[in-house]
C-alpha cells in the first residue's frame, strides 16, 4: 500500500512539474510575440554578395523585428526575390535583335512586396541549331 501511495505521489509531482514548465514556455512566447498585426516588411538583404542567407526588417507602429531569409542564387534580380511570376514559353528568335522574349504574370507577392503585374524578359537566341534528325534516329528500329 505504501509503495502505491509513493508511486501516486511521484506521478502527481511529475505532472505538476510538467504543467509548470509548459506555462513558462507559453509565457515566454507571449513576451516574444507581438499584438501588432499590420507589419510592413522590407526586402531580403543578403549578408554578403547578392544572394544566400540574409535578413529582412519589419516594422509595425513602434516595434521592429528582423527575420532570417534566403535569396536563391538563381533569382531574377530585376523583379526582386519576393515577386513570383508564372512565365509563358519562350517566343521565336527575332532576326533584328538576336533575342527571344517571354512574359510573366504575377503569381504571388511575398511580404507585401511592390511587384509589377506583368513582366517581360529577353535572352540571346541560341547560336546552335538543334537538328531534329538526331532525335528521330534513336526512336525505333526499321
From TrEMBL:
Spell out the subcellular localization from the entry: Secreted
Q: What GO biological process terms does the UniProt entry carry, in alphabetical order?
A: positive regulation of cell division
Q: Which domain of life is it from?
A: Eukaryota
Keyword Transport recorded: no
GO terms, molecular function = growth factor activity; heparin binding
Instruction: State the InterPro entries in the record.
Output: Midkine_heparin-bd_GF, PTN/MK_C_dom, PTN/MK_C_dom_sf, PTN/MK_diS_sf, PTN/MK_N_dom, PTN/MK_N_dom_sf, PTN_MK_heparin-bd_GF_CS
Report one GO cellular component.
extracellular region
The segment(s) forming the Pleiotrophin/Midkine N-terminal domain are: 23-79
Q: Where is the secretion signal located?
A: 1-21
Q: Kindly state which keywords UniProt assigns to this record, in alphabetical order.
A: Developmental protein, Disulfide bond, Growth factor, Heparin-binding, Mitogen, Secreted, Signal
Question: Which stretches make up the Pleiotrophin/Midkine C-terminal domain?
Answer: 80-141
Is Secreted among this UniProt entry's keywords? yes
Tell me the PANTHER family matching this sequence: MIDKINE, PLEIOTROPHIN FAMILY MEMBER
Family membership, please give it: Belongs to the pleiotrophin family.
Chain's role:
Secreted protein that functions as cytokine and growth factor and mediates its signal through cell-surface proteoglycan and non-proteoglycan receptors. Regulates many processes like inflammatory response, cell proliferation, cell adhesion, cell growth, cell survival, tissue regeneration, cell differentiation and cell migration.
Name assigned to this protein? Midkine
Q: What is the lineage of its organism?
A: Eukaryota, Metazoa, Chordata, Craniata, Vertebrata
Gene that specifies this protein: Rihb
Amino acid at each position: 500500500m505504501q509503495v502505491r501511495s509513493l508511486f501516486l505521489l511521484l506521478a502527481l509531482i511529475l505532472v505538476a512539474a510538467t504543467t509548470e514548465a509548459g506555462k513558462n514556455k507559453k509565457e515566454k512566447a507571449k513576451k516574444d510575440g507581438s499584438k501588432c498585426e499590420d507589419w510592413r516588411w522590407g526586402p531580403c538583404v543578403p549578408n554578403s554578395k547578392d544572394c544566400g542567407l540574409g535578413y529582412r526588417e519589419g516594422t509595425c507602429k513602434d516595434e521592429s523585428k528582423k527575420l532570417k531569409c534566403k535569396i536563391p542564387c538563381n533569382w531574377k534580380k530585376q523583379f526582386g526575390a519576393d515577386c513570383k511570376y508564372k512565365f509563358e514559353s519562350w517566343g521565336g528568335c527575332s532576326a533584328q535583335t538576336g533575342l527571344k522574349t517571354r512574359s510573366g504574370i504575377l503569381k504571388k507577392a511575398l511580404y507585401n512586396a511592390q511587384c509589377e503585374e506583368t513582366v517581360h524578359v529577353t535572352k540571346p537566341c541560341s547560336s546552335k541549331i538543334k537538328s531534329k534528325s538526331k532525335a528521330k534516329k534513336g526512336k525505333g528500329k526499321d
